[in-house]
What does this fold into?
Amino acid sequence: MPSEFTVRVNGALVSVSAGATVAVAMVIAGQPCRNSVMGEPRGPLCGMGICFECRAVVNGIPHSRTCQLLCEPDMEVKTDE
It folds into this structure.
């Protein structure tokens, strides 16, 4: 696997290092993981997969805990921004 590659977050290409989590890619892209019921942007909180704040659609799989998934080349990430 290359040491750096791109993933797509809400349509934008983001360059990440090998070993980076999907949550890191979303932070680099400046995208929240989701919005609260009050409309506030939410991001990764615990980083351990316990709080579920980092959920997003990853490669078509909804509610993926992005802090637990490593990025792969050409991965597609969508949030409910």
